Amino acid sequence: MYYKKKSTFLVALSILALSAITSANTCTDLLFKQFNTFLDPQAEVYIDSTSIDYYSEQVVIASKDFYDNGKLVKRIKIYDEDSVVTYFYYNSNESVLKKTGKEYINSVSTIQDTLFIEIQEYNDGVFEEKIIRKQTPNYVVEKGTDYLFEFILKQDTVIETYQMNIKKDSVYKYSTFDIADPSDDFKCYEYENGNEKGIPILYKPNEKGFSIQYTYEDNSYNREYFFIKKDNTTSLRKTLKPIKISPKARYFDLLGRYKFSK
User: Fold this and answer.
1) CB within 8 A of 80, min separation 6: which ones?
2) Half-sphere exposure of 249 (CA within 13 A, CB side)
């Protein structure tokens, strides 16, 4: 899980050495799209829905995204029995806000192969924070008020680094390494918390696109991201009941990952 201690230095070196000698891997390449297609209107695939279970935290998340001409315009996310409806607007101002629930005003621009995104986050019409993202074909960085995420695609390795300000004057940093399986193009492994075996990640193609599934042996934490190809649509197989915004929602970032350690 994201708030645990991560790989040791020696494990990291062995992982990078392995990635240097392997060839292009579908699993790691598509895994990186989980990060660098977000809010990209030119992306060939989009995140359609997610299913995330944090069993040790007793949190279940399911979400469904809605698009208009390639732009993400609405996300419905369920935390246990509560739900959050989030709206996304582009290159606009506060006059577009509904002033209810989560809303994001996004300023998107492109220079060569780099997508620049400035995200203004509002809750019930009140400004909360500014999030800055930069996305390229092999690098993504996201910076919020109290966190910094970086994602790097290097050969057959996705390197994820996280820095979170847990308390005043207290910074928590860690990294994970997602490494290709040299014998299976549809499989890669996430190395974290000194686990030399790695957590299996499966690339699963389907008629609409594909999914990326993480599987933890102790079933403490499982997640799956569903992607669709451009112009395809799917539906979330769970009844959506808008109720109240769960207080747990603030612990997660835009992709459903933990931002903080409680």
Assistant:
1) 58, 59, 60, 246, 248
2) 20
**% of the chain residues with pLDDT over 90:** 35
- Residues 251, 1: Cα–Cα separation, whole Å: 13
pTM score of the predicted model: 0.73
- Could you tell me the sign of the dihedral formed by the alpha carbons of 27, 29, 35, 38, in that order? negative
What is the rounded distance in angstroms from the CA atom of residue 219 to the CA atom of residue 240? Answer: 25
Tokens of 159: 């390197």
Of 202 and 232, the one with more pLDDT: 202
Residue with tokens 């612990």: 251
Cα 206 versus chain centre, distance: 20
Contacts 24+ apart (CB under 8 A), 234-241: 234/48, 234/49, 234/208, 235/64, 236/49, 236/62, 236/63, 236/64, 236/76, 238/62, 238/78, 240/64, 240/76, 240/78, 240/83, 241/81, 241/83
pLDDT digits (tens, 9 = 90+) for 109-147: 999 889 999 999 999 999 999 999 999 999 999 999 888
Give the single-character DSSP code of 258.
Answer: B
* 17-26, 83-92, 118-127, 184-193: which is most confident: 118-127
SS3 at position 218: coil
Rounded CA-CA distance 176/162 in Å is: 9
Q: Is residue 152 classed exposed, middle or buried when 0-12, 13-18 and 19+ CB atoms within 10 A define those classes?
A: middle
Closest CA to 115 of 84, 147, 142: 142
